[in-house]
C-alpha cells in the first residue's frame, strides 16, 4: 500500500460534531481533503463549512441538533444513514466552557458543560457503535480531549471534570469495542485560537503567562490538529487504540 493510500478516506463518511467553526471546521476540512463525505452536526447553520467541504468535491450534509438535548440519538443516527449513507468515522468535537471560581460556580453552568462535553459524547458514540456492531462493520471514533484531561486548570471546574471524563471514556470504549473492529482514540489540543479561548487571549497577563509556558512560543491554530485527525481516522492507524495525542506545542512536556 502506497503512502497516499494509507490516508485515503475516499468512500467513507465522517460525522463531525461542532463543525460550524474552529476545530470542528478544520477537522471536517481535512477529512474532506482526504476524500471523506462529511456530516456536520451543530446547533446552528454552518454555510461556511459547507462551502469549504464542497470545494473538495465531496458531499456535505448538515444536521442541526443541540446536543444539550439528548433526545433519541439512535434515531438521529438512523436518520442520517437513511438520508446520507453509512457513517464510518465519528469525531466528537462539540464542546462548551464556562468560567468562574470554585466558590461561585453554578449548578446550571456545571450541568450545561457536562451535558455537551461528556454525556452527549458517550451516548452519540454508543448510538454510532451500535450501528457498526449490528452491521458487523469497523469504525473509528475520535474524541477531542484537552490539556485539562491531565491538569486541573483554574476557574473551569466543569470543563476540567468533563475533559478528564472524555479521556477516561476514550480508554473504556477502546477496551470494549476493539474486538468489534472499532478503535477509539483522542486528541488533546493545547491552547488553540478558537472561540473558547477568546477571553484568555484578550487578557494581557494570562496571554503572556500562557505563551511563556508553551515551548514553541505561540498559540496553536485549528489547522495544527489536521495531521493528527487524519492519522487517527485513516486505515494507517488500525493498531492504534485507546491512545491520546497531545497537540500542544510542548506544553505537557514543560
Molecular structure report:
The chain is an alpha/beta fold and 254 residues long. Helix content is 43%, strand content 15%. It has one domain: NAD(P)-binding Rossmann-like Domain (Rossmann fold). It is built from nine helices and seven strands; from the N terminus they run αβαβαβαβαβαβαααβ. The protein has a seven-stranded parallel sheet with strand order 3-2-1-4-5-6-7, with helices on both faces. Strand 2, helix 3 and strand 3 form a beta-alpha-beta unit. Helix 2 packs across helix 9 and helix 5 (107-135) runs parallel beside helix 6 (157-177).
Structure in a nutshell:
43% of the residues lie in helices and 15% in strands. It has 254 residues and is of the alpha/beta class.
Topology record:
Layout: H1 3-6, E1 13-17, H2 22-33, E2 37-42, H3 47-54, E3 60-64, H4 73-84, E4 89-92, H5 107-135, E5 139-144, H6 157-177, E6 182-189, H7 198-202, H8 204-213, H9 226-233, E7 244-247
Parallel strand pairs: 1-2, 1-4, 2-3, 4-5, 5-6, 6-7
Name a few traits of the molecule.
Rossmann fold, alpha/beta, seven-stranded parallel sheet, 254 residues, 43% helix
CATH superfamily: NAD(P)-binding Rossmann-like Domain
Poorly predicted tracts of residues: none
Name the CATH class.
Answer: Alpha Beta
Q: What would you call the shape?
A: globular
Spatial strand arrangement across the major sheet: 3-2-1-4-5-6-7
Name the helicity range. 40-55%
Structural class: alpha/beta
Give the biggest beta sheet: 7 strands, parallel
Order of helices and strands: HEHEHEHEHEHEHHHE
Distance between the termini: 38 Å
Number of structural units classed as domains? 1
Q: Judging by the overall fold, what is the CATH architecture?
A: 3-Layer(aba) Sandwich
- CATH topology name, in short, is Rossmann fold
> How many helices?
9
